[in-house]
Amino acid sequence: MEKFSQLLDQLGRGNFTQLTLNLSQNGQEIAILQQQLAGSDDKQLDTLVEQHPAMPNDTRFKMMCISYLKYSRDVDPWSVWSSSDLIFEFYQCLINCLINDNAPHIEALIPVAIRETDFIIALAHKLDSFHLQLHTRNHQFLSHTSSILSRLFNSTKPPRGNGSSKTVPGKQRILLYLVNKLNNIYFRIESPQLCSNIFKNFQPKSMLAHFNEYQVDQQIEYRYLLGRYYLLNSQVHNAFVQFNEAFQSLLNLPLTNQAIVRNGSRILNYMIPTGLILGKMVKWEPLRPFVSQATIDNWNVLYKYVRLGNIQSVNHWLKHNERHLCARQLLVVLLEKLPMITYRNLVKMVIKIWTTEWGQNKLPYPLIERALQLSIGQAYEDNTAQDFTIYNGIHSSKNVENVLVTLINLGFLRANCFPQLQLCVVKKTTMIQEIVPPATERITKIFPANSHVLW
After folding, report:
1. Which residue from 129, 178, 426, 436 has the least number of CB within 10 angstroms?
2. Is 446 left (phi over 0), alpha (psi -120 to 50) or beta?
3. Which domain holds residue 387?
4. Which residues, other chains included, contact 421 with Cβ-Cβ below 8 Å and sequence gap of 6+?
């Protein structure tokens, strides 16, 4: 029996061992197929598949087999680019076979789809990295991959009742895997808002009664991506909750696995700055397996500046780390959120000295203005239009009332402002927390975490 007839017999009976695009795994078989299929045109390949007795009566399945024969016949083992149309045509046909819940051999095809999806995403990312040389659009191949996967996601039917992970269909068992792959691609192609539809429809599509029935590593990945999505939308408390839950789950896994350590580092890249925005101070000792001493020292510098209420130094730190922060899409949220935490700590220091130590409960505006001048720095105060940047544009010691009122409205300061008297009046007490409540407590109260995200 010729190799291609033997292959079709295996495929028709649900044996998909050879069904892979990865030439490092089946290159020898593909080479034999290429020799046997040389000279056969597309119509002849269609006839071979249609007339083969082992083929099930399913159009999509036959199209997948035909596309694989075309790939075997025409693939160039020396050029991914010249074979890319064959590669993505087969992958699309493979995923299309999973659209129909009653498709032949669907349960056996699901592990193949997972294996080929991992291969295709890595390949698409590699091709996109050469888009200038190939004259293709930026993220063209990853975007195409996401469109294929999104059809599979949309084809997953809503639950008709609860089930366990052992009884639900294979498409349901890989639902979280599919969700994570799509969301990862959306972040890679710089379109994270597309994640909204995936996050919104994930639970309604799932037949599992509880989120924790999915694999732990997939749960961690989902929470990490959800946290990043929240952070991009300035929902800082929601983001921190997801990062923290992901990290706590990860700590229960064996840290001897380097992939787990890398995932921990990835989560902490976002969890640390998110906690800082919430006013949380990190305990570094449990995090040492995941972050280097240089990283700890760098973040500690920023922590010190925020704690001291030093706006100028905070901005210098952000500017110095601009490239690193932009790469992780953290710069904007830190520029937006950190100043008020820093101003809160500055005003807290002034109140501590003026009220709790000297017994004065009336803070003159000029006193606060002088503190702002020292915090913002003279260089920032004297900027010309030519020096106007994202770091110094909004900070001025003249904004005394604006700063105080904003702190009061956010619940960071319990006081009353009297503009005509140029005074800020606080409670006369030695208990500073009665005047300046803990930042974390206030933020979590004003912006409670979404309790209906997971089930």
Report:
1. 129
2. alpha
3. 333-446
4. none
Q: Which residue has the tokens 């009566």?
A: 57
Q: Could you tell me if residue 166 is inside a domain?
A: yes
Count of helix runs (H) and strand runs (E) in the chain: 22, 3
**Which structure tokens are listed for 309?**
């209420």
**pTM recorded for the entire structure:** 0.89
Confidence band (pLDDT; 50, 70, 90) for 159?
low
Note the pLDDT tens digit of each residue in 11-52: 999 999 899 999 999 889 899 989 998 888 889 999 989 999
Looking at the fold, whether 34 and 167 belong to one and the same domain comes out as yes
User: Which tokens hold the place of 364?
Assistant: 């003159």
**Tokens at 146, concatenated:** 């996401």
Q: What's the structural domain count of the chain?
A: 2
Domain-terminating residue out of 151, 179, 213: 213
283 token code pair:
């305990």
Strands (E), 400-443: 415-418, 423-426
DSSP one-letter code for 280: P
Distance CA 392, CA 389 (A): 6
pLDDT for res 444:
75
Is residue 412 one of the residues assigned to a domain? yes
Cα distance between residue 291 and residue 287, in whole Å: 6
In a domain, 158, yes or no: yes
What pLDDT score does 88 carry?
97
Per-residue pLDDT of 101-114, as tens digits, reads 888 899 999 999 99
Q: Which of 173, 195, 213 is the last residue of a domain?
A: 213
Closest CA to 374 of 414, 343, 334: 343
Residue 439 lies in a domain: yes
Q: Which run of H or E residues covers position 364?
A: strand 362-364
53-73 per-residue burial string, b: 16 or more CB within 10 A, e: under 16: eebeeeebbbbbbbbbbbbbb
Q: Which candidate, 216, 245, 208, 16, places its Cα nearest to that of 108? A: 16
35 and 171 fall within a common domain: yes
**Length of the chain in residues, anyone?**
455
Sign, CA dihedral 335-339-340-341, equals positive
How do 415-418 and 423-426 pair as beta strands? Answer: antiparallel
Closest CA relative to residue 176, chosen from 139, 143, 203: 203
Quick one: 208 and 337 in the same domain? no
